[in-house]
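Human: For the file, kindly provide a plain-text protein record giving the amino acid sequence and the backbone structure tokens, at your earliest convenience.
Assistant:
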Amino acid sequence: MRFGLFGTGPWAHMVHSEALARHPEVEFVGVWGRNPDKAGELAAKHGTRAYADQDELIADVDAVAIALPPDVQAPIAIRAARAGRHLVLDKPVSLRTEEALELASAVAAGDVASVVFFTRRFVPENEAFLAEAIAAGGWTEARIDHLGSIFTPDNPFGASAWRRERGGLWDVGPHALSLVLPVLGPVTEVTGLAGEHDLTAVVLRHEGGAISRLTLSVDAPAAAARQSGEFAGAAGVRPVPDVEFDAVEMFGKAVDQLLVAAAGGPKSPVDIEFGVRVTTVLAAADQAIAEGRTVRLG
């Protein structure tokens, strides 16, 4: 499958481009970026072409991978879907529910495959854990803590303007939701509080009555940074696996899922429809915090 890459930032350099260049079933056609010099540098690294025009790259490929801020990603993804191109997207798919729904409609109308790169959902141990948790059922609660400290001189993501503006809710919140939604089901109520820096606490009520609690930050004190989670219910208390993983390898698995779906096989469990569910919950959390009330969904 011929792929075009949109984006030239750290994630595009470290993960997307490396995975596309290594994948045996991918032809890495070219790169577009908001900075032409960076696009040229990344393209040269992988022996491919830098494109100055978005539509020209879309026209030359079968699929696009996008590693751009969500407000930049969504309009490009909509254009690509309307052109019949398959999509590998970053999370969140958009910062606005209405735009996420527009993207989902374009994917459906174009009959194209889509995968959203919720990194940890491609880790085999996590997928096995979720499958077992879904099969067990009877969960009454879940807790996910995802706190990082990215605004340090040695962190390549610290220069990200959208992460600084939107904080952990929108950056790592999608990872937390990618774990609780498959097990506990759709969200019906959202409430939350904002603390110092970008510290965010979100409480969700799910369709079956279960409650999940998310503590999120990308600007936590270094000593407080952590990633952990657990589900509790009739089956007891089950911790979410804490395993090391290679993001490039996980992106390759995302491409594998896209190839299967594009060939008429099963859709990815983290396709655009799942991406819309995540954006809807995050937008509701933003609203709940801003207005100091519980937001009801559905």
Q: What stands out?
A: The longest strand covers residues 139-147. The CA atoms of residues 1 and 259 lie 8 Å apart. The chain has two domains: 2-119+248-270, 124-242. Residues 272-291 form the longest helix (20 residues).
